[in-house]
Amino acid sequence: MKFPVILLAILHTHAGLITQMNDQTLIETTCRSTSNFQLCLSTLLANPLSATADVAELALIIVDAVKAKTETALSGIEELKWLHPELTDALGQCSNSYKAVLKADVPEAVAALTRGVPKFAEFGMVDAAWEAEICEGSFERVAESPLSELNRDIHDLAVVAAGIIKNLL
Amino acid sequence: MATHSPPYDLEGAMSYSPIPAGPHRTSSAAEPHRPKKLLARILFSSFLLLSLVLLVVNQRPAKLDIVETTPSTSVNDFSPARPLTEPPSRGVSMGASEKVFRRVSGGELTFSWSNVMLSWQRTAYHFQPEKNWMNDPNGPLFHKGWYHLFYQYNQESAVWGNITWGHAVSRDLIHWLHLPYAMVPDQWYDVNGVWTGSATILPDGRIMMLYTGDTHDVVQVQCLAYPADLSDPLLLKWVKYQNNPVMVPPPGIGHKDFRDPTTAWLSPDGDKWRITIGSKINTTGISLVYETADFFKYELLDGYLHEVPGTGMWECIDFYPISLTESNGLDTSANGQGIKHVMKVSLDDDKNDYYALGTYDPVKNKWTPDDPELDVGIGLRYDYGKYYASKTFYDQNKKRRILWGWIRETDAEALDILKGWASVQSIPRTVVFDQKTGSNILQWPVEEVESLRSDSLEFNAKLEPGSVVPIEVDSGSQLDIVASFELDKETFEVTTEADIGYDCPTSGGAVNRGMLGPFGIVVLADENLLELTPIYFYIAKGPHGKVETHFCADELRSSVAPDVDKIVYGSKVPVLDGENLTIRSLVDHSIVESFAQGGRRVITSRIYPTTAIGGAARVFLFNNATRASVNASIKIWKMSSANIRPFPLDQL
């Protein structure tokens, strides 16, 4: 009597393990198609939803990470304006850039990914990476950029997102 | 608002029955003309000519005296004036494709856009809504004296999303009047987007509009709509068919890979209509064909109209006949002797529009390209600049095939948000077969655009190597430019060195000098040439000794701003014996549409200068070749505004 129960239990665990392995393989395969495997992998694995996500959903996780970093950058910019009034122009440029990421690029990417026209999601994430470059560039010849790390993070995440999205085209 | 739940079963949905086998018709199409032989002969004789010149002319290397002189505008030989050798500004990105990494130049200080600079970017005679985002042109047609244009529109923001059908009308394809939205996403089957579609005008005058709806569970389906009142010339109100959707993704086709239905053409027996819809299987782009007798019920036909491996998803397919002998356009159902079919796709993968000429067998329902190496998606493009989602219609009013194309912005999104709008439509172009080359179409701005021409000036010059000549045009933002170039036979020297591997996108632009190019025009330039956009020819000896002419648009120094794309667009252009090199360029603020050799190749550019705007925008002729002198002639018209505005409906 006990034997079938034990057998079922073993099979169930095994199936669970196989499913987990397969999902990790999708994450791995997807991340290999991007230009930054490590960043892709770490960002996705940090989000429990990635375990059962399809490629579009994986892209959405990265888009969400871009959004989060951009929000961090924008609140940082507000603080920096107080502390460094001499950087007002550059910070203003960064503010414009990142507001566009939140107002346009991210919503466009989310809308496009959910509706199955990934081309517009690609436009959005390619632009988000560009906005990060523009922000960083606005400090050139003015001062050392206080946002370098954030800018690089946003840029790199957006590039990863665009890389994942290309698989959907 | 109807909110019936979907009555369709997505999995088992549409079974289809094959067309009953009819009597086998022998192909009436003649053996396709062999354009390659003609081209080969032309190139061979050009090579012979060049060799002759080589033998005859003294080979002493020419001394390049680049003398700083003030350019004058008299009709004389121009000794080399200020050379066009400004190095690209630091950090300007030069890339073949839309790179993610754009090295951004910080400019003098942080660059800030002024309102003057941004508002200058709005066009004066290209179609665009008053604000917000636009993309694909939809359902263009002519009805009761009015040309109609519908378009993908976002009423909420200057970025793609929340798509509705905008609507505008015009008497002449140039002076547009905005109308209320034709369709909004108000049904379960299009609540996530009223997407791209096409119109079919039936012989009895009824208009059938097929379009893609994105359903509440994000499945792409095809829907039917038609005018509420055909007697209304403005076609203000549209009715959605009560039993939509009329087509759903068939088995084996992804729910997100099924969109953009075409205009219909008659089946061989004349009792049914056929449309095609693009899709993909893995990475093979395919074209599904449906047949219908009434536009309500559809049958999926066996096989594909055509497919090309490796091209990915086919968006916005267009499929239409073209006359080999006549200069007029053809109704979409035309076929027979002296007619080829153009197949065109918008490739999701690289965001470009590709076309190919071929033969359509209506019995087998197969289209075959004339040249499989230049198959659709891997060969010719309509436009080598920024141009996508294009669509033609048959203009029964003037018997023309007219082409619309969506031109998006190439600046950073932050600027689109600041200025509150994004995208324009190209000037509508006529499409005809190029009888001289036999291997491409010719596109040309509709003649109605010439009604905007006002003052003109003409100018001729012999351009010595390294010369830049200003043209006396004040206010160069709205211009129609026609320029012709002829290499001076006396100074036409060719060495045995091949100038191999020239390709506009990797060329580095007009700054890089060859023996026989670049030369052409410069638009949207300030008088100091700090910002400039050269549109030019570059003649090169290819790897096999044959002469190639390249036609390029160089945006590398188009603006000092860091947040705009700076790419060199272009491609080779066929040039036949005895032809001068010609450019027509429509300059309209932030858009420049340039046509080489009467429309054999076209490049649409988006340009965002910061100083070369308004009264400061100038035009130049230039010749940056190191050897060849060029005889140039140019005629420039100022262009008036088309005064595109809302239709005065309250006055109806």
Folded structure, characterized:
The complex is a heterodimer of chains A (169) and B (652). Chain A is mainly α. Chain A is built from 6 helices and no strands. In chain A, α3 packs antiparallel against α4, α3 runs antiparallel to α6 (148-166) and α4 packs antiparallel against α5. Chain A starts with a helix and ends with a helix. The longest helix of chain B has 22 residues, at 35-56. Chain B has 2 domains: 134-445, Glycosyl hydrolase domain, family 43 (Tachylectin-2, Chain A, 5 Propeller); 454-639, Exo-inulinase, domain 1 (Jelly Rolls). Chain B has 3 helices and 36 strands.
- Series of H and E elements of chain A: HHHHHH
At CATH's second level, what is the architecture of chain A? Up-down Bundle
> What gross morphology of chain B would you assign?
globular
Number of helices of chain A: 6
CATH fold name of the largest domain in chain B: Tachylectin-2, Chain A
- CATH class type of chain A: Mainly Alpha
Strand numbers in spatial order across the main sheet of chain B:
1-24-35-26-31-32-33
Structural class of chain B: mainly beta
Q: Fraction of residues of chain A in helices?
A: over 70%
Main sheet: strands, sense, barrel of chain A: none
Look at the structure and give the mean pLDDT of chain B.
86
Number of strands of chain A: 0
Helix tally of chain B? 3
Overall number of structural domains of chain A: 1
What distinguishing features does this structure have?
heterodimer; A: 169 residues; mainly alpha; Butyryl-CoA Dehydrogenase, subunit A, domain 3; B: 652 residues; Tachylectin-2, Chain A; 36 strands; 5% helix; globular
Topology (elements, then pairings):
The complex is a heterodimer of chains A (169) and B (652).
Chain A: H1 2-32, H2 37-45, H3 55-83, H4 88-115, H5 118-137, H6 148-166
Helix pairs in contact in A: 1-2, 3-4, 3-6, 4-5, 5-6
Chain B: H1 35-56, E1 77-78, H2 115-120, E2 132-143, E3 146-154, E4 163-170, E5 176-183, E6 194-201, E7 207-214, E8 220-227, E9 238-240, E10 265-266, E11 273-281, E12 284-292, E13 298-308, E14 314-323, E15 339-347, E16 352-361, E17 366-369, E18 388-395, E19 400-407, H3 413-419, E20 421-422, E21 424-425, E22 429-433, E23 441-445, E24 453-463, E25 467-471, E26 478-487, E27 516-525, E28 533-541, E29 547-554, E30 568-572, E31 581-588, E32 591-596, E33 601-606, E34 618-623, E35 630-639, E36 645-646
Parallel strand pairs in B: 1-24, 2-20, 5-36
Antiparallel strand pairs in B: 2-3, 3-4, 4-5, 6-7, 7-8, 8-9, 10-11, 11-12, 12-13, 14-15, 15-16, 16-17, 18-19, 19-21, 19-22, 22-23, 24-35, 25-34, 26-31, 26-35, 27-28, 27-34, 28-29, 29-30, 31-32, 32-33
